[in-house]
Amino acid sequence: MKVQRRRRAIALLKSVLGFGLLAASLWGVDWTAFSQSFTRLSFAWMVALFLLVLLSLLLKTLRSYLLLHNFQVSLSFSRVLEAFFLGQAASTLLPSRGGEVLRLAYLTAEDVSRFPQVAAAVMLEKFLDLLAMTFLALVVSANLPLTEAVRVRFWLLPLSAAGVVVLLVLIAGGPGVWRRLRAHWAGRGPAWLDRWLRFGDRMVESSLWLRSPRRLLPAVGWTVVIWGAMWGTNAALFRALELRLPLTAGGLVLVLVYIGVLPALMPANIGPFYFFAQLGVSAFGVLPADAAAFAVILHAVVTLTPLLAAAVIFIFSAQARAVLFRSAPDTGG
User: Fold this and answer.
1) How many angstroms separate the CA atoms of 78 and 297, rounded?
2) Do the Cβ atoms of 163 and 127 come closer than 8 Å?
3) How far apart are CA 322 and CA 302, in angstroms?
4) What are phi and psi of 42, to 5 degrees?
5) What is the value of pTM for the model shown?
6) What is the residue-wise DSSP string for 16-51?
7) Among 259, 255, 253, 260, which Cα is nearest to 20's?
8) How many CB atoms lie within 10 A of CB 213?
């Protein structure tokens, strides 16, 4: 009961913060000027915006497929794509990050023994994105608000550096440590321990590819391309709204939104997304009405694109419906 009450209290607090950010982002906006911002939209640049969002999502799927196969998980590209878009949709619609749980369940529905490798691949994705975001944050740090600059320097940068060190240590010494631990535990515990040891064996064996720069560098390269596409998305919307902003503005928006939506305060992260997207362009003197229009359009495109893709997958994939109904995650309410 205490755990449930704590979860409800945390969920309520997150919702209050989320709606507070939404109110702050829309407070004092000149709605006449806001509506006029939409009359300036360039159709060609809006098409480019949509294509860049779709490209970044497909590139993330391709990176996921690459990492899964590096971890010796043999799944078709269509299965990886379905898992990715359904997970994106769940993360948008649910108040917590249930999308990652759904994605893991979808990828392991037919063989639960591959769970360690799938989880490792997803965690490596997140780690690569953290490194990319930290590097980009350092590039645009001169334009960051003081609180976010402090967060980058005293939280994200040390966290990224520590993550790199831990990863290097695990790559270099992990297999040897595992062999010693396995020799000590093997045959000395209950049956479930033997199952976990076998999981560990598969995990260590499938992770040896990380020692090969030839195989690791493509994942890093795809991450750079993905973040370049997301940066280009912001730049395309600047052009669509006739906002004459430097390239650093697109990077600043990307960093602020990425940091702002991490806590997953509310479904679709509307409040945090609007607030931090507006904050990013306001730093370059954009008027509040134009900043609000930029935030609304960007959020609509990056949210609706994966939702529509997930809806198509759900409608036309019998396998997706079967797995989804069988493995829908419990988000804790």
Assistant:
1) 29
2) yes
3) 27
4) -90, 125
5) 0.83
6) HHHHHHHHHHHTT--HHHHHHHHHT--HHHHHHHHH
7) 260
8) 9
Q: Quickly list DSSP for 75-138.
A: --HHHHHHHHHHHHHHHHHSSSSHHHHHHHHHHHTT-GGGHHHHHHHHHHHHHHHHHHHHHHHH
Q: Is 332 left (phi over 0), alpha (psi -120 to 50) or beta?
A: left
Measure the CA–CA gap between 318 and 88, rounded to whole angstroms: 19
Residue labelled with tokens 């806590």: 263
**Hey, what are 246's tokens?**
């430097």
* Assigned token pair, 20: 């507070």
Name the token pair of 159. Answer: 């966290």
* CB-count burial class (<10 Å; 0-12, 13-18, 19+) for 216: middle
* pLDDT (tens place) for every residue of the chain, 333 residues total: 666 777 777 777 877 887 888 888 888 888 888 899 899 899 999 999 999 999 999 999 999 999 999 988 889 999 999 999 999 988 888 766 678 888 998 998 888 888 888 988 998 998 899 888 888 888 777 666 666 666 666 666 676 677 667 666 666 666 666 667 666 666 666 666 666 766 676 777 777 777 788 888 999 999 999 999 999 999 999 999 999 988 888 988 998 898 888 777 777 888 889 998 998 888 888 899 999 999 999 999 999 999 999 999 988 888 777 776 765 444 443
CA distance 250 to 227: 11
> With left for phi above 0 and alpha for psi between -120 and 50, is residue 223 left, alpha or beta?
alpha
